[in-house]
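ok trying again, last paste got cut off:
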Amino acid sequence: MIQHQLQYAQGRFRWIAQEAFGNEFEKLFHRVMEHCHPDYLPIKTSGSLGDLGADGLCTRCRRLYACYAPETFSVAKVRTKFISDVENAIVQRPEQFDTFVFVHNDQRGIHPVVAGLLSEAGKDYPKICFQQMGPQKIWHEAMRLGRPAMEDVLGEKIPIDEVVYKIGMADIETLLKHLADNRNARAGSGPVALPTVVKADFNELSPWARQALQDGRPYGYLIDQYYRDGMDMRERDEVADGFRAYYDMAREEYAADTDEIMWQMLRYVLGQDAGSWKREEAAKAVIACFFDECDIFEVPPVGWQPVHTVQGGSA
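nice, full thing came through this time. structure:
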């Protein structure tokens, strides 16, 4: 898919996931997994056998998936469901999986109770890896699909012509607002020291791309503050996963055109309608953060040195 189609699909997927509960959410999850993983097996309940603690299995990677997508979250019910699925899977499918994945429909991230259950289960069953998978991670699986497969997942046609919308990267909408509202907090603190320029030189970034990164760097501390104060400690890693997946797709499509790749990353954050100059400045801060922490663009091999250096790069 081309970029505007992918952004359209992202917005539609997010809306569908928000409105899907119970079996409907599980069906959405199955559609994504069956398209992304040829070895994925959706499991139905069968009489007195039930599902033996699993809603799906990936046979090659030996992952077992258990779905819980209620319309109204209940601490008591999620605890009962989780413990029951884990115990049933351990007892009845001991040779079929090495990783237990708890699939949920919480758009905001994993609930603290579920985080505690995953941690406790890891201690009780140290040979099993316990993970969670919410709508954002499911989207990260789906975003690599071609248009026909994505249309099957969404249950609708994706527009061929470019349309204008304000989707952007909805998962960091609050972060963008936080950055835009606080961008002047550092006024008068002096210039921000440049990191080393090796990574920018290795990726052959243009002066425009380097300047975009440098424009965003003064506000990097706000991103750190946002994630440090957030309730969900996994949020930053999940957002970084999405950036890496989107960067990989842009690099595959645009090859060595790093200016175009940088522009596509900004579009990923902003959508097609930037809305305001403050939002664009916030987006530059986000891109600079993930560039400097090596989530996007290529990392130079150890010992690589440029022929010459230009200001505006990063290690």
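cool. The longest strand covers residues 63-68. Confidence is low (pLDDT under 50) at residues 163-171, 182-194.
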